[in-house]
User: What shape does this take?
Amino acid sequence: MKALLAQTIKWITLLLSWLTISPLFIYLARKWRLIGKKVRILLLLISPLMLIVYIIIYWVALDEYNAYQRKYRFANNEAIERITGVAFPKLDLIDCEQNYSGLGGYYYGKLTFEMENEQSESSYHYLDSIISVGNTEWSKCEDEYNYSIKWSKRKAVPLEEITEPLGDISLSFKKGSKILILSTNYMWIFDD
Assistant: This one.
């Protein structure tokens, strides 16, 4: 009777340690020789604690991947030209600042580029002409050119039609400078 009670206590202790502290489970199972090595390893791999560890590793890896994607999403000429409608010399990413708040929250990114060559005078004249015509996202303040667009429901729309903006992209550079700064802000909304 004592042996049966001791064996039952060992199994209950083993079960509780499997549910809470997996390394203790491995230690006790090996010490008491209740479970074979292959079964111990299998149970360790599917223990609740290890599943939590797997979820944390997955979450961190996904977060790092998303941060990498956000950093390089606009880090090429084609993406910036597609957004702004203006050609730029080859761009080299020299700095990246990112800030985001957890689950489905707010993201801010600031990318600093260096242009391989300074913009040509014809590019400045083109920008001046589209700014003077109006009805564009481009603006100019002294020698600084700015591009700013807001969007709603993840679609770019004209500024006057936006009732609740979810994000914006702004780009700025000074005439005669090789530095170009692109900022992005957005909020994830999961209602669609």
Remarks:
- The mean pLDDT is 80.
- The beta strands are 91-100, 106-115, 138-141, 144-152, 155-156, 167-174, 179-187.
- The chain is about 45% helix and 25% strand.
